[in-house]
# Entry
Amino acid sequence: MGFASFLGRLLFASLFILSAWQMYVEFDANGGPIAKELIPKLTVLKKNLSSKLGVGLPDIDEQHFVATIIFLKGLGGILFVFGSTLGAFFLVPSVRVQHGDTKVAQIGGEFRAHVTLFQSNTQFM
# Structure
């Protein structure tokens, strides 16, 4: 059972590690294609935080932000393979930033529904 658990973690984490590698390869002087997607999100986040906090926030460099996401994905995937929960905590922010809260909530809801259906079906076997 231990090998199956390790293999499952390895396959799951490989998605994040390969995604981080692809982002690293595409990373250039402008931050790559992901930076173009994140600029509007960072602008909205900065406006919301500055209006709620009442202070101006410093500029966030898109290249540093993308590099941080790449680092979190890579390190989180490696730590997740070896069973560290810290790896999962590194992966969550990178997914939320890249895909948005609404899409993550929608996918999470669908996942919980499928798990519930699977559990109810296996109880009758």
